[in-house]
Write a structure and sequence with these properties.
The chain is about 70% helix and about 0% strand. It contains 19 helices and no strands. The protein has one domain.
């Protein structure tokens, strides 16, 4: 491809990213969130719970604090029901040490905290993208990097997270930073950062077992990550217990109410019913660990390790009990793996090519649908378009499964090529 054609293509992708991000921003701001209460914020529950605990010594899991949070977010406390008799759903639903991480913010007004969160979320998302690009050794031109950044910030999961002010954005950034530290051989700091990321515990449900398996692959060299993780967790737990003795029981009680409040079901529950969804989740959990266990000897900066890590994060989105698209921030490394190794997929048989096409189609659909709604808004009043608010989200339950299958195909294709190479050259000598 000539230089002028390459520049034209890159500029074309840049313009497409701007158009896609603008369409999605319009959809999120005017259609998806049209019926949202004015004070709704996922950040407020954590901030107010930390505020009351650290400044006034109140129990953030208490019914009184939960009702105060609900009044600000919904305009009135939630009505109790049989599954949440005290009406604490929608309150402070984090481990107590999440309040410690929010400590500096309790001295600021919530309006200021919201602005800080917006800036930190945008910077954190771009930092995550830069980290995963570096770890995967994807060297792009500034124009392509800018294009990827606009696509990332203009995706529905990121814009939803920003609109809701959901801490998922911060947790995903913490995980990316932890893997950067891990690849840089700063194992103690990496372990500490993984511990901090557990303030969003569902994001770590598969990642921690995978790191245990990987650490066991070379325990003598990798054990500092375990010491960093355990030391940080013990410190956070000890300080939390000192601030609020017996907090764990209260936290688990709130979690049960929170699952009812948020329709806490996984994608597998939706596809296979809750009973069989649990069985399938167990199967996915074991399959990922077995597949990853075969590569546990690989270094943290190796392509194989990053593929398994991406697989683990994609599987996490599939099995955790939430349908919220902002959790799909964990799919970012998996999508970058598919981008990097798309040639391998496209040249490895019809099934793998189908998975590749399905992944790109499912990824592109929300932007296509959002652009369609933007065009429709030029001819119809916005309120007439609200009935179509779900259209851009039709592919949301399918994308994590497609990414997961794509990563499985990549790992099996890589394993087959490695095995063929060893069979044709068993002594490892040059042919």
């Amino acid at each position: 491809m000539s230089g002028s054609s390459l520049v034209t293509r890159q500029v074309g992708w840049l313009l497409l990213s701007v158009l896609s991000a603008g369409s999605m921003a319009f959809y999120v701001a005017t259609i998806w969130s049209a019926n949202q209460t004015p004070g709704f914020s996922d950040l407020y529950a954590g901030w107010w719970g930390a505020h009351e605990l650290l400044l006034h010594g109140r129990d953030p899991y208490s019914t009184a604090v939960a009702h105060e949070i609900q009044t600000v977010i919904y305009g009135a406390p939630l009505a109790p029901d049989s599954q949440d008799p005290t009406g604490i759903g929608g309150g402070f639903a984090y481990p107590l040490y999440a309040a410690l991480l929010l400590w500096p913010s309790v001295y600021l007004s919530f309006a200021v905290v919201q602005r800080v969160f917006l800036c930190v979320s945008i910077l954190g998302t771009l930092l995550s993208l830069a980290i995963w690009l570096r770890l995967m050794r994807l060297v792009w031109s500034p124009v392509i990097w800018l294009t990827a950044g606009i696509f990332a910030l203009g995706s529905f999961p990121v814009l939803q997270g920003i609109k809701l002010q959901n801490p998922s954005l911060l947790a995903a950034s913490c995980i990316a930073i932890a893997f950067f530290l891990l690849s840089s051989e700063r194992l103690v700091l990496a372990g500490a950062m993984f511990a901090i990321a557990t303030f969003k515990p569902q994001f770590m449900i598969l990642l921690i077992p995978w790191l245990v398996v990987w650490s066991a692959g070379d325990w003598r060299r990798r054990r500092p990550i375990a010491w960093g993780f355990l030391a940080t967790m013990c410190l956070l737990a000890a300080v939390s217990e000192w601030l609020l003795p017996g907090w764990m029981g209260s936290f688990l009680k709130v979690v049960r109410a929170y699952r009812h409040y948020t329709f806490g079901h996984s994608l597998l529950d939706v596809w296979f019913t809750p009973r069989w969804g649990l069985v399938m989740a167990s199967f996915v959990f074991l399959a990922v660990l077995v597949l990853g266990g075969r590569l546990r000897s690989k270094a943290a900066n190796s392509p194989e390790f990053l593929q398994v890590t991406s697989l683990v994060l994609a599987a996490t989105v599939v099995v955790i009990p939430t349908l919220a698209p902002h959790a799909q921030l964990l799919l970012l490394p998996g999508l970058l793996c598919v981008v990097r190794d798309r040639t391998c997929l496209s040249s490895s048989g019809a099934l793998r090519r189908l998975v590749l096409v399905a992944t790109w189609s499912l990824l592109a659909w929300p932007w296509i649908a959002a652009f369609g709604l933007l065009l429709a808004a030029t001819h119809y009043p916005t309120h007439e378009l609200l009935q179509y608010w779900e259209v851009p989200l039709y592919t949301s339950p399918l994308l994590p499964l497609a990414v997961l299958m794509g990563l499985v195909c990549l790992l099996t294709a890589r394993g087959r090529k490695t095995g063929d190479s060893q069979l044709s050259n068993p002594r490892g000598t040059n042919p």
